[in-house]
Amino acid sequence: MKTLVACAAVIFAIATVTSADAKGCIKGAVVGGVAGHYAGHHGLIGAATGCVIGHHEAKERARQQKEQEQQGNSVQPK
Fold it and tell me: Burial of 8 by CB count in 10 Å (0-12 exposed, 13-18 middle, 19+ buried)?
């Protein structure tokens, strides 16, 4: 239970301190924290890892979406 409370505190701190550049971090931290908690009481490590992975995934999705928009704009009918 202490780990769960600590994870919630870390996630809350991350949510209030970080900027908009942290897309995906909160969602990843929640999932990673829960998974880490149930996989050997390593909730904080799971939350940190989940934050990194979530941020990376959000960044990749944004890049792919930007590329699709650019491809859509480059093909214009005459």
Answer: middle
